[in-house]
Known about the structure:
The protein is an alpha+beta fold.
Amino acid sequence: MRHFRIILALSLLLALLVPMRAWAHAQLLSADPADNAVLESAPQAVQLQFNEPVSPLAISLIGSDGGKSDLLAGTTGGESVAVTLPAGLPQGTHVLSWRVVSTDGHPIGGSLVFSVGTITGAAAAEVSDPAVGVILWASKAVLFIALFAGIGGAVFGSVASLPLGAEKASIGLVIIGLPAAVLSLWLQGLDALGLPLLSANARILDTGFATSYGATVLAIGIGFLLALVALCLKRGKVAAVFAWLALITGALALALSGHAGAASPQWLTRPAVFLHIAGIIFWAGALLPLFLLLRERSAAADQALAQFSRFVPFAVAPIVLSGVTLAVIQMGWPGPHWLAPYGLILGAKLCLLAVLFGLALWNRLWLTRPALAGDASARQRLRQSIVLEVLLILVILGLVAGWRFTPPPRALATVEAGIPAEPLMLHLMDATTMAMVSLAPGQAGPVGLDIWLTDLEGMPISPLDVAVTLSAPALGIEPFTRVATEQDGLWSVEGLTIPVAGIWRIELDIRASRFELIKLADELTVP
């Protein structure tokens, strides 16, 4: 046991020290030129601004004639991706199709449409093959099952008697896990490059390995081999060492990539992922052996059940604590982004986990003691409960595999914060004067307010001064006034702050002359 504690401590230290900067998930913040922009002359380059450093995987330019140019060689990575465009782009509409990969190993892609001189019918950008995503999800689900039940079975065999059926199942799963890992890496390369399922390209595996998921596949493959050795050795200290090394390697593998493992702060998230996965391997790997052992009463079954009941709290506690920690970090502050697919998957997972933990608690507190005392009905209920636990875990693993395709809410919140809202427009008029008021960005917070003043025929007018009064009676905010400044016929109020969202009343005091004051007012809803 002392040696195990030393190995576990070293593994946590390794999970903490693996060199990787802390990021959550890449999202495009802005582009220059902007999407759907019409330019007078051809740009020399396109700038794509992301919320974290990325590496370009596939960059191509598609013209209105359908011709395609590979621009990957002239592209630089980082938070700002610079794509050098060919000289002398012809008039018309062009589509820049891009795919990049972030530190968490998950590729993202998109298209930027811009026109030079005039808008024409550009060829459509390439669309990723949906079959790749479906099979990638399935391969990762199989990989998770092999990890938790295969390596978990080897770990169970190191602390209790492993029945022959469970031993064969564990060996079969770790053997299946090896090609499943390679298949998932190949699919990762296809997904990263945006290629269809049946593509033959030498870059596919290289691209998969170039992402952080390549390190995960390598580590998980080593874990499967260690577990296979442990299962072949059956019992003994050497087999136990190989089994626990397999658990450590498997848990470390999933800490090397993915949303949670790449989130900040790394000193907390990586060990949390490691402990989360290690606890699940121990718990899930024991379910099939216990189900088979409890078919009849025997000393081996009683010993295995007692051992599992003694050790399982040390697996469940890290699962719960690390899971809560990672959920808080990934979800970020409450907001609409909580209802994104990532949040919905997490909500479904938490509901299933509540049922799963309830079953585990019922098993330990109300069924284990009677089962050890020889109560046949308690043993039967234990086996039924284990079947439910296995089914719940399979559904949870399917949900977790779907996280690959969803950015976490914290990344979405970063994007929302980085992209200003569209300006809000308000039109005011009376019998002689019209005013067009623009509030930008169109949301609560620091804003700029611009005013265009004309007569009813649309001709500009030149008042002596303009004052703007804002209030929000429904929100309990009394009126406050700012004086607008004029430049080239445009009246502006800078340094203005709309403190909260809601319905705001905007009043304009327009001094047309020393003897005439024009008042215009209306309400505007600020999100």
